[in-house]
């Protein structure tokens, strides 16, 4: 029963003011790839921002130095949403670009562009190809703001590559105009299409495929309830993400309007036991980063176990080849964005004292 923590990215070190927006995948060879945005001059969401990657070939115990996955070239490259193709071993990395001086309000007002791009690695994250733009394939004309992920994407059982995303319709960011959606590729990343859209008020999202072949989309929720308590929203798809229905709110999953992560632990078909992990700041503020378990295919969630009691925000989950649970998350003593830290957990540690 273990838990080990290591700060992989520390603010004001390595030539960047702040590191934000973690993403995590494990390759077919077992290499762990930890991504984030390196924000060069400030903590703001725009400016000179690169996408960085660190590699571990021993399940997250030791790490290579950060390397540049995508250069913002003085502008903003962000929202990493990586996925590993099980058939080829290619690591696909969708992301978004905007001008350093063209932040989200200007994008929504139609005064600055926001574009969607794709790079990939065929050598386990050692190098990354020159990115290609896919905006025309995946962005509707009336969508202004757009974001891939952030956090890992997934490959469905049928081979479909599926990227959770979100967008804003028109020139105003309200609970009525912001929505989660997915994009997908059925030809091994060659071309991409827009899939289904979730209910209004949803935003950054994460997807899990259930054992019966449905797709569960868990979303940041900008619609508060009458008691003004925010909880994660969800939507279900029965056609591999082409459309969504059965919208609702997960009563157990309180959130401060923030990003979250979810991933299946192990193979439910072979083990006979379903476990899906979920991580978010389980509070009304960005704090108390907690990992929970669902044992009924996302229908309900346990109390979980807290990783960090203090300030915390975005996170991503992965499972190493030996079954070790990996959680990469923003946290700090005084503010949520002081470090991006990796926790390595055994399932025994996570389930020993499930309480927040």
What radius of gyration results from the CA coordinates?
Answer: 18 Å
The largest sheet has its strands arranged as 1-25-24-23-22-21-20
Judging from the principal axes of the Cα atoms, what is the shape? globular
Output the CATH topology. Neuraminidase
Q: Strand count, sense and closure of the main sheet? A: 7 strands, antiparallel
* Structural category: mainly beta
Mean pLDDT: 96
Query: Beta fraction of the residues?
Result: over 45%
CATH class: Mainly Beta
Q: Give the termini distance in whole angstroms.
A: 19 Å
Q: Please tell me the CATH architecture by its name.
A: 6 Propeller
Low-confidence stretches: none
List the helices and strands in order.
EEEEEEEEHEEHEEEEEEEEEEHEEEEEH
Describe this protein's structure.
With 356 residues, the chain is mostly beta strands. The protein has a single domain (3-352), classed as Neuraminidase (6 Propeller). Helix content is 5%, strand content 48%. The strands form 5 sheets. A 7-stranded antiparallel sheet has the order 1-25-24-23-22-21-20. Strands 6, 7, 8, 9 and 10 form a 5-stranded antiparallel sheet that branches. The longest helix has 6 residues, at 347-352. The model has no long low-confidence stretch (mean pLDDT 96).
């Amino acid at each position: 029963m273990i838990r080990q923590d290591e700060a992989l990215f520390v603010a004001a070190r390595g030539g960047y003011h702040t590191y934000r927006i973690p993403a995590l995948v494990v390759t077919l060879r077992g290499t762990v790839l930890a991504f984030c945005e390196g924000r060069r001059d400030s903590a703001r969401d725009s400016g000179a921002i690169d996408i960085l990657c660190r590699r571990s070939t021993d399940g997250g115990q030791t790490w290579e130095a950060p390397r540049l996955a995508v250069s913002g070239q003085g502008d903003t490259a962000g929202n990493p949403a990586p996925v590993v193709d099980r058939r080829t071993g290619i690591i696909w990395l969708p992301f978004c670009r905007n001008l350093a001086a063209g932040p989200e309000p200007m994008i929504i007002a139609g005064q600055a562009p926001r574009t969607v791009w794709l790079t990939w690695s065929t050598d386990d994250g050692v190098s990354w190809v020159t990115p290609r733009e896919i905006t025309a394939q995946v962005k509707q004309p009336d969508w202004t703001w757009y974001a891939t992920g952030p956090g890992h994407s997934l490959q469905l059982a049928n081979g479909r590559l599926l990227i959770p995303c979100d967008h804003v319709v028109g020139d105003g960011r309200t609970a009525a105009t912001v929505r989660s959606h997915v994009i997908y590729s059925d030809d091994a990343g060659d071309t991409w299409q827009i899939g289904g859209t979730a209910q209004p008020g949803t935003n950054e999202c994460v997807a899990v495929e259930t054992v019966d072949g449905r797709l569960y989309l868990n979303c940041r929720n900008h619609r508060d309830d009458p008691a003004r308590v925010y909880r994660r929203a969800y939507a279900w798809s029965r056609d591999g993400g082409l459309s969504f229905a059965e919208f609702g709110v997960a009563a157990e999953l309180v959130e401060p309007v923030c990003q979250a992560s979810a991933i299946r632990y192990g193979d439910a078909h072979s083990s006979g036991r379903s476990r899906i992990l979920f991580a978010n700041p389980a509070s009304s503020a960005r704090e108390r980063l907690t990992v929970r378990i669902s044992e009924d295919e996302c229908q309900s969630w346990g109390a979980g176990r807290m990783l960090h009691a203090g300030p915390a925000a975005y996170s991503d989950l992965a499972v190493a080849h030996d079954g070790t649970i990996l959680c990469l998350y923003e946290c700090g003593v005084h503010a949520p964005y002081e470090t991006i830290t990796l926790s390595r957990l055994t399932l025994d540690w996570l389930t020993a004292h499930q309480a927040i």
